[in-house]
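Structure first, sequence second, as always.
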């Protein structure tokens, strides 16, 4: 069974950086597409970055140029490097996976498995 576990959340000041980690246990076809989501209370969960097993990446517009998603298939680890953080980045961040590798984009990715979430708080 696929299991995902995020870590690395915390509190930072505006302009700071944070790196989130996602440990992937029992990778399978259900982890062909990996993604990071975030959610603010009262709002929909937002896809912010995707990566497939070949390393192809996609980002939501607000994350482009600031966030970098990466994946190490051998270590079964995924990361989200977040730079130039803004207060509006404050959210619960989730690691997620899905089976459809050829639709592994922010627009089309659908998650089958989720981590428990890690809180990111950016203060001004």
């Amino acid at each position: 069974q696929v299991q995902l576990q995020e870590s690395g959340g915390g509190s930072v000041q505006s302009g700071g950086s944070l790196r989130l980690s996602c440990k992937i246990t029992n990778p399978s076809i259900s982890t062909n597409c990996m993604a990071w989501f975030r959610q603010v209370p009262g709002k929909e969960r937002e896809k912010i970055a995707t990566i497939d097993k070949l390393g192809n990446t996609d980002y939501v517009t607000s994350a482009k140029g600031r966030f970098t998603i990466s994946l190490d298939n051998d270590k079964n680890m995924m990361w989200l490097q977040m730079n130039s953080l803004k207060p509006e980045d404050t959210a619960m961040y989730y690691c997620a996976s899905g089976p459809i590798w050829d639709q592994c984009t922010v627009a089309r990715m659908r998650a089958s498995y989720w981590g428990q979430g890690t809180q990111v708080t950016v203060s001004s």
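Margin note: The chain has a mean pLDDT of 97.
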